[in-house]
Design goal:
The protein has 551 residues and is α/β, with parallel strands linked by helices. The chain folds into two domains: 278 residues, Rossmann fold (3-Layer(aba) Sandwich), CATH 3.40.50; 205 residues, Rossmann fold (3-Layer(aba) Sandwich), CATH 3.40.50.1820. It has 19 helices and 14 strands.
Length: 551
């Protein structure tokens, strides 16, 4: 469902090393900007509208055979010139919501680089290095791909080098098991991301990027991945200098190491690999289709089964502990989410046949919020909303027990981090964003992932389908958002010329709201009833938060 944020001059090759042999002094020959030498070999890309695009560059060895369930290793060198004009495979996954393509190819650790086309350079003047954004895709850690995100608009408009990366998903990327190496706690997908960042640090200069000015960005599970990289400061230090977290609360509790191992043992049992002595070899012997079948069965009962877990060098501490104590990678942050995040999932529930009416509304609230359900209904009376599903989606978007897509938790995460680093808090609120599904019968609004086309026009859940255009008013908002995001990538402060000032986050009234024709600060805590939630659940927004028991 994800849709999938958001130059070189002729001296590039001299600045970057030996991408091509230097021309004879007597020859005034420009090097081919589509041919670049990396530390593993030469790649040849393609020209796009105002950009150069390099697709399908391997950054790690294929994680197959004995490398399945092992930490990533740098890609092997290659001879000749690698064709970097086509995307490579997404990591193994089922088709999700009938939108994303399924994949059964474990040879998937590739990245894509898009850079502005080189301009004529002044004689004897080196090409300037541009800021870099590394984008991590979402997909609940079981789906998605770098291939879904067209990078050219963000690169060209923001004067940025933009990189998108793949990482292992589901069982292959986020499963712990007693028979597997414990150092990374099953969070191998996070290690893939770090390996890609190491590749960027070594190679991005050859594409015109500045390896000392890298912003790590992502949405949903991609944003959660940014949080994890911040939490594991010891492992991530020096790999990026700024962070953008879109639609994920870094403070949300993570699965315990013991719980993650129990999930792994459940997977092993279903795969008939429950002999402890032979479990590792057995798990490596199973076909990818067997693994994906079992993964789907386990994830249907526990949607968080394959997510980063606590207690390893990959994720050494809970997010709430890390951000409240300052034990995270201290870099400037953009942090926030979408006004109506959870209305998307209410729409999916209706599509699956769930009745959400004035009669079922109290029962649904009781199932989520327990004995406080009646007070929640009084705080959010359905008659004050255009439709009952809109009311339920608003409640869930404001706060859900243990919910990662909660506006009040976005504020809590931002407030914690702002004690140690500059934080710029935002809310995307364009209720005329392109729809993500057929009309469910109520206004969906600015739902989860609705902002992605504003950074990646024509993004589609399915790489074979072109996404819709933005409305004219939304296009203007897109240009403003890209201006803020790229200004942040350039300088660490989102302060583009001619647009309203975005203050550092010190109070809930410092949140920048993005909607067509109006970019302004507002009191996000009041808008999302955060005082109400804190009053009923005084510990729910604290570092020791526990999910409220459901009936």
């Amino acid at each position: 469902m994800l849709k999938a944020l958001l130059l070189l001059a002729s001296g590039l090759l001299l600045a970057a090393g030996t991408a091509l042999a230097a021309p004879s002094p007597a020859a005034d020959v420009q090097p081919d900007p589509l041919t670049v030498k990396t530390d593993r070999g030469v790649v040849h890309g393609a020209a796009g509208p105002g950009v150069r695009e390099f697709k399908g560059i391997p950054f790690a060895l294929p994680p197959v055979g004995e490398r399945r369930f092992a930490p990533p290793e740098p890609a092997a060198p290659w001879a000749g010139v690698l064709d970097a004009t086509q995307y490579r495979s997404a990591c193994p996954q089922p088709s999700r919501y009938g939108l994303t393509d399924a994949s059964d190819d474990e040879n998937c650790l590739y990245l894509n680089v898009t850079a502005p086309a080189p301009a004529p350079a002044a004689k004897d003047s080196p090409a300037k290095k541009r800021p870099v954004i590394v984008w991590i895709h979402g997909g609940a850690y079981v789906g998605g791909s770098s291939n879904l995100y067209p990078l050219d608009y963000l690169s060209r408009t923001g004067d940025l080098v933009v990189v998108s990366i793949n990482y292992r998903l589901g069982v292959l990327g986020f499963m712990a098991h007693p028979a597997l190496p414990a150092a990374h706690g099953g969070s191998l997908g996070l290690e893939d991301q770090r390996e890609a960042l190491r590749w960027v640090k070594r190679n991005i200069g050859a594409f015109g990027g500045d390896p000392a000015n890298v912003t790590l960005a992502g949405e949903s599970a991609g944003a959660a991945s940014v949080c994890m990289q911040l939490i594991a400061a010891e492992q991530s230090r020096g790999l990026f200098q700024k962070a953008i977290v879109q639609s994920l609360a870094c403070d949300v509790p993570l699965e315990s190491a013991a719980g993650a191992r129990r999930t792994g043992e459940q997977v092993a049992k279903l795969l008939h690999c429950d002999d402890a002595a032979a479990a590792a070899a057995c798990l490596r012997s199973k076909s990818i289709h067997e693994i994906l079948d079992v993964q789907g069965s386990v994830a249907s009962a526990n949607p968080r089964a394959f997510t980063p877990s606590l207690g390893s060098i990959s994720v050494p501490r809970q997010g709430a502990e890390a951000f409240s104590s300052g034990r995270f990678l201290r870099v400037p942050m953009i942090n926030g989410g979408n006004r109506d995040e959870m209305r998307l999932y209410v729409a999916y529930a209706i599509g699956a046949g769930q009745a959400i009416t004035s009669e079922t509304y109290p029962k649904l609230l009781a199932s989520i919020y327990g004995d406080v359900g009646p007070e929640v209904a009084a705080e959010y009376p359905p008659e004050k909303f255009p439709a009952v599903p809109s009311a339920l989606g608003t409640v869930e978007s404001d706060f859900m027990p243990g919910g990662a897509l909660s506006n009040c938790l976005y504020l809590k995460s931002g407030a914690d981090a702002s004690r140690y680093v500059p934080v710029y808090e935002y809310e995307f609120a364009d209720r005329h964003a392109p729809p993500e599904m057929a009309d469910p019968g109520f206004e969906m609004g600015a739902v989860h992932a609705a902002e992605l086309p504003y950074f990646f026009p024509h993004i589609s859940h399915n790489s074979k389908i072109d996404g819709p255009d933005l409305e004219p008013s939304s296009q203007g908002l897109s240009e403003a958002m890209v201006a803020y995001w790229s200004s942040f990538a350039h300088t660490g402060s989102p302060a583009p010329a001619g647009l309203p000032a975005w203050p550092k986050y010190r109070a809930a009234s410092d949140v920048m709201r993005f909607e067509p024709g109006e970019v302004h600060t507002f009191d996000a805590s009041a808008e999302h009833h955060c005082g109400f939630w804190q009053g009923h659940y005084p510990d729910s927004l604290s570092p020791n938060a526990r999910p409220i028991a459901r009936r």
